[in-house]
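Hello support,

Our group uses your service weekly, and this is the first time we've seen a run hang past the timeout. The protein is Xylose isomerase. I'm not sure whether the cause is the sequence or the server load. Input pasted verbatim:
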Amino acid sequence: MVIGVLFWFLVPNLPIDTLLEMIKMKAGNFWLFLLCLCVVSFTAISLGPPTCPADTGSECGVGTGEWKGEFFPGIPKIKYEGPSSKNPLAFKWYNAQEEILGKKMKDWMRFSVAFWHTFRGTGGDPFGADTKLWPWEDGTNSLDMAKRRMRANFEFLDKLGVDRWCFHDRDIAPDGDTLEEANANLDEVVALAKELQGTKIRPLWGTAQLFLHPRYMHGAATSPELGVYAHAAAQVKKAMEVTHYLGGENYVFWGGREGYQTLLNTDMERELDHMARFFEAAVAYKKKIGFNGTLLIEPKPQEPTKHQYDWDAATSANFLRKYGLIGEFKLNIECNHATLSGHSCHHELETARINGLLGNIDANTGDPQIGWDTDQFLMDVSEATLVMLSVIKNNGLSPGGFNFDAKLRRESTDVDDLFIAHIGGMDTLARGLRNAAKLIEDGSLNELVSKRYQSFDTEIGAQVEAGKADFETLEKKAMEWGAPKVPSAKQELAEMIFQSAL
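Update from on-call engineer: The timeout came from a worker crash unrelated to the input. Re-ran successfully.
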């Protein structure tokens, strides 16, 4: 009887007839069988339930409302294999723990994955419908689907080896018919995100999506409707609270619709004043809740608005100075936005840096043959080297970093393309860091630049730079020196030195 009860405990679904036959076994055979059964049972318990791919047709999580299997089956954790590796799912240049100029690569980079492009990107463009529907998507934007995407996000981060992510409030949780409903949806998804990110992962930054909903057609902080302004303020308030709760290091403002289509129906001065008051309120609320992260403004010249008020780094810096906000904000520079404003990414980074405003970089690029914001992964080693020269001069970006605000091409539709694109972007910036370090350690480029300005390394030059040389003094020196001799800029030599490091 004891034997029967033991078997019934180990194998509760065992048929009675089979159980009775086992009880009749000879003692030796029985105990051998029991030992084998115990080994199999405890092995199954220790291994846990089998994984299965995260597609909507699988049985994983059926009836639970939440899928908990593996989203990227067959894709291992991405490792560094070195430049000679031919493995597309391995780093060739990004070695997280390797020290460059006294700092680990991971600390120079502080990479982040953009939730919206990676998990909400559809492949659609102004001329074509969506091309992507990942296996785990069910075609809805329900709370259950939002939670499923969040689980996919953290599996992706873990396998890629990245410990930061960025989000818009409405990308990670569905909107609601009321602000209260939208906030409740966000709270539910954020609770899961908090659980999944643990202690090692945190948002690089969070933000509120103030451009998609029709209510924001005229802008948010610059809308002529007070009700819209108030709704935007409430949405930012909640997004800041959520970012703070998740341990976010920064908070971003992107004014995609903060601008105008025509000045004929726009009071630009009043709209700029309203935007400044909005930012002042954000600063006050940040301090009230004890959020120590950096507030960032992301410049962009146009698209979707004809003219956006944060056109480029210089325009944004001027706005912050005019309204006394220069010490409260830094800039999140996006390389593709620099292209649209008629600048290079290097120019925008340097403009932000010399104004003490370089806070974060959205690592992407555009296509010179396409006139819109294509948000491509940065794969140009030359551009990456210029980017890293600015980052090194800035002594890094912390508490900012590099956010991959980049999306797969419309024609790239395989799940592993998500990994390949991020690996390529990370490797490109790692090569840029290595090249920039090589240029700095060689010193030839710095020497060339210093030599161009050596005439200011004199007594009168120092007076000029200190603001102590008046026009009368300079006139006397000009007469004393006679016609100036202007040396060569050595541009081709500078380009040769730069290219030799690539």
